[in-house]
Amino acid sequence: MLKKILLTHENVDISSFEVVTSFMKTNGLGYSPKRGEINTYLKDAPEDYLAVKVAVIFGIFGGCRREELYNVNVGDVVGSGSSMIVSVPKTKNGRRRMFSIVDDEGGMDYLGTIRKYYHWIASILNKIIK
């Protein structure tokens, strides 16, 4: 990604610089957040980011692509007490996919976050309809 950014914005092709390429390969390709950092974000982020929190939860449990997240509707999420079943209607390969979300034993309230988002969306829709 760094190569592409430099090529696009600065018109510099670093593929001819073997030392730079070697340095980038040895130091890793990118940053990948740890599960603890994600859980900290889910706990500490303000409620203004409720939609992002739900997208992160769907990403953790379902491995959803951004197009798949876009296609999920409120009716595709079915809750039953201690778990939720999410149905992804349109996937990359054209098959409907399902996954379940359960609360973490470590105290993460994933289901509570999704329920807050659901009630928030419902209140917005009620204001629009009235």
In short:
The chain has 130 residues and is mainly alpha-helical.
SSE topology string: HHHHHEEEH
Largest sheet composition: 3 strands, antiparallel
Number of helices: 6
Give the mean pLDDT.
Answer: 84
* SS elements, strand count: 3
What radius of gyration results from the CA coordinates?
A: 20 Å
Low-confidence stretches: none
Beta-strand fraction estimate: 5-15%
- Percent helix, as a range, is 40-55%
Distance between the termini: 47 Å
- Inertia-based shape: elongated
SSE layout and pairings?
Layout (H helix, E strand, L loop, with lengths): L1 H9 L7 H9 L8 H10 L5 H13 L3 H6 L5 E3 L3 E6 L8 E6 L7 H20 L1
Antiparallel strand pairs: 1-2, 2-3
Helix pairs in contact: 4-6
Characterization of this structure:
GO terms for molecular function: DNA binding. This protein has helices at residues 2-10, 18-26, 35-44, 50-62, 66-71, 110-129; strands spanning 77-79, 83-88, 97-102. The protein starts with a helix and ends with a helix. The relative contact order is 0.11. Helix 4 (50-62) packs across helix 6 (110-129). It has a three-stranded antiparallel β-sheet with strand order 1-2-3. Helices cover 52% and strands 12% of the residues. It is mostly helical. The mean pLDDT is 84.
Summary keywords:
mainly alpha, 2 domains, 3 strands, 52% helix, DNA binding, Integrase-like_cat_sf, DNA_brk_join_enz, DNA recombination
